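Continuing the series of single-chain predictions for the mutant panel. This is the parent chain; the variants come on the following pages.
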Amino acid sequence: MGFYDNHNHSQFSFDGYRTTAEASAKAAYTAGLEGICFTDHCDFYVPPMKAAYEKFVSEVFDIEAQQKEIDRLSGTLKGIKVFKGIEAGLYHDCRQQLREHLSKHRFDQVIASVHYIDDTDPFYGGYYEGKDWKQAYGHYLETIFEEMTWLVDFDILGHYDYVARYAPYPQSSIFYKDFSDILDSILKYLAQEGKALEINTKTYQDYNGRTPVLDKDILMRYKELGGELVSLGSDSHDPSRPGHRFGEFAAILKSYGFRYLTHFEARKAVPLTIG
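Parent structure:
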């Protein structure tokens, strides 16, 4: 089957300097993908602590410029569909601002993600200080549930296990057995509201000698609760990533009994049978 990569960043993201929408779309075509969605970063809150590590910049992308470029690519590139998306960064202090921002624009899909938590960026490690692994992972999952159920207006829950990428603990993954109650709440909400669970293939790679794994029990519980919509995203920030390991993860999903992979067009779910 031809895959759709539903999580990609371009030059319009604050950290998308390694690629352009055109370069990544062409790379996606070369990789055999049928579609690519650009979901550039939109985080209204950026923790001040980031200024100690990198230049402090706005992380809200220019939607008009991005969508104009996607329209251009859609008119010139053959053999691949290019979609308009956004990765909406969830943070309690910016709730109304984000909701109003989303209401003013039209997208093919909206990813809801948590990048920043407790005035920190987990990427730089401060979030984990003073917490054991259960506290750090559990609080992150609780924050996802609280923020996504407030926002409501999204299509895909992005990288629910993002917090495991940069953690300092031997426990490198989020497993259902350790967080069954909060995961049940998240998965049940997604299933009941017709939202998609993302498998973000960027998570399942080496991070300083730790390699998070995708937990089968989380997926099986999602299916048990009625969840059918699963989205694949490479979280690409450079042209080498679109579609990364999609065949592998599609085969895993099929072996677990999932029949479809889902992408969104004009905010409508489009399920495609896993071949």
